[in-house]
Protein: Homoserine O-succinyltransferase
Organism: Stenotrophobium rhamnosiphilum
Amino acid sequence: MGAFPADSVGLVTPRKIVIDQALALDCGRTLPQHELVIETYGTLNAKASNAILICHALSGDHHAAGYSSETDKKPGWWDNCIGPGKPIDTNRFFVVSLNNLGGCRGSTGPSTINAETGEPWGPDFPLLTVRDWVRSQALLADQLGIRQWAAVVGGSLGGMQVMQWTIDLPDRIRNAIVIAAAPKISAQNIAFNEIARQAILSDPEFHGGRFYNHDVIPSRGLKLARMLGHITYLSDAAMRAKFGRELKAATPSFNYDVEFEVESYLRHQGQAFVDRFDANTYLIMTKALDYFDPAREFGDDLSTAFRQAKAKFLVVAFTSDWRFSPARSREIVKSLVSAGRDVSYALIDSQLGHDDFLMPLPQYHRVLSSYLARITEEET
Amino acid sequence: MGAFPADSVGLVTPRKIVIDQALALDCGRTLPQHELVIETYGTLNAKASNAILICHALSGDHHAAGYSSETDKKPGWWDNCIGPGKPIDTNRFFVVSLNNLGGCRGSTGPSTINAETGEPWGPDFPLLTVRDWVRSQALLADQLGIRQWAAVVGGSLGGMQVMQWTIDLPDRIRNAIVIAAAPKISAQNIAFNEIARQAILSDPEFHGGRFYNHDVIPSRGLKLARMLGHITYLSDAAMRAKFGRELKAATPSFNYDVEFEVESYLRHQGQAFVDRFDANTYLIMTKALDYFDPAREFGDDLSTAFRQAKAKFLVVAFTSDWRFSPARSREIVKSLVSAGRDVSYALIDSQLGHDDFLMPLPQYHRVLSSYLARITEEET
């Protein structure tokens, strides 16, 4: 037990929450029941007013902090930010992290069994929206006895969920921490997603999404999708700093084997992803990204959308992020200001690109710490 | 005949040049003979001192200007720039445009017949470098009786060939016009190329490059590669301006059919490319891009490399180009200045991205026109 660092939440065990209420989805279909796998860190206070929800991004899951076993070498994906004394301080807050509906880490999704057929859902699993996730997360909050989150926090696609919370369920969120996000993705972002999807959909081993029944996975397509994602998570400068354009050998090989370090990195990242992620979930996640557009039902005016909100906002962007650039975060801030909302904005000097929202950059963590330190635990 | 615009070179007919000299390649192999398909516009003067070579980019070919038939609706790929009275003025210059070795529009390449086997070369065709192309183009110049080009002109990968000419054959080029290029591609660029290659190589219908014998083409992979290329040719802003994030229908379809205009555009571009381009050529072109690094044999010092050069330089970059950004062109300019070379630099205000080097932007064409107007027809 003493093996874990002192500022770690230590050993964590996920649990499965069965949500028996029907969930009506934006696509028009209804899930009569669904399950969400969660982890929690810290202790819920008597008034249930100190809860923070962590919303994950495209490939994230419930395992945000701590270690899954005594011998686990790698902690959760946001362990540098969540723990005793860390920016999201588990001495003070009760932190809830979930695998979203549609995910592939135990929550109901395309790779789980459809009770109606006894087979994996596969392509029959409904496409989801960020609104659907907020609805599902609200049912989760009900089940946990949390009427109002002290804060909802998320980066990238997670930040979109945070914004949607403030608009759809304004009384249930006191603080919204929106990191490296955008009010909606750009045509270029959609284009990248579309290529990733086509890579998966056109893989002969995708079998129309029913690859589970064929004992194969569409590994070529999923690998390409992940490799492409990686380019957009890193800045050009970061790639240059990390790999330069170093040849692995002294001279070119004049064949299609790995020649440059960056190729080796990408192939490795792609393969590692294939081993842990589900292709149908990847498709669902990219579509949710494409669909996200909270201004749409408010006459395409984001500030009108944010007039629904009651939360206080912290918006964080990173200088080197070209996937969701600071300009996109400023659009969010501008709309919040127009809507008369209470908003703080931090632009963090960074090198790595979009992935910096996962990094323990001191300036970034100070911003989060000082914002969270001012959060009252009183319900509003 | 009167159907063509007055400033067009009109009807053009490609011709095949057989080059019987052996060509030693950087990979160590030698081609005993090769053929290049070319078009020429304008008239070579008696001293053969008014010739301009056009070097094409990744997916280009010899058909740069004019019309291939009386009923041809679309002129060559750079028709807006080449013709009587146009920036590359065929009233004054004799313009040579070729399909590079390794191409797929008639020049010797992977889809042509290997005399040794009587079958298409396929994967047995050697990987090429920009230096190899310069060697091949020099043999072409010999055959055409051109000792020294008045100018060599190219954008993107074409610009790299221009730079290599100045370093490898300094006495044979008086002016170098390097457009939207880079001294070597970045790790991010290599990463994009690698994903494009993996898309093709992993397509089951690639058959190790011998798809010709199977009566199929690796269309899925080639389509993905082209879609990905397109994202990098256009700026985020251009994509936004062109497609916004408009849904094709009033509401989302919640399936994987085309939903956004940008998806429709990309799929169309991908399919059109599959119908006209060869997958092995695409692989060869991307590798040549990756390998290009003229500073490498000069102690990684580009200015030392450029000390070989005798040409005058015009370097042109475009503000909205993120594939080969203005910063990369400034690296070229800086090295040329350090090397004591005569260099002009123009940064063109643009919106579209990398593709702007093909567009008739007035500022851009004025820069080309005025530079070319000052070119003397005298050999040096």
Summary: Chain A has two domains: 15-185+294-373, 189-286. The CA atoms of residues 3 and 369 of chain A lie 26 Å apart. Chain A has ten helices and 14 strands.
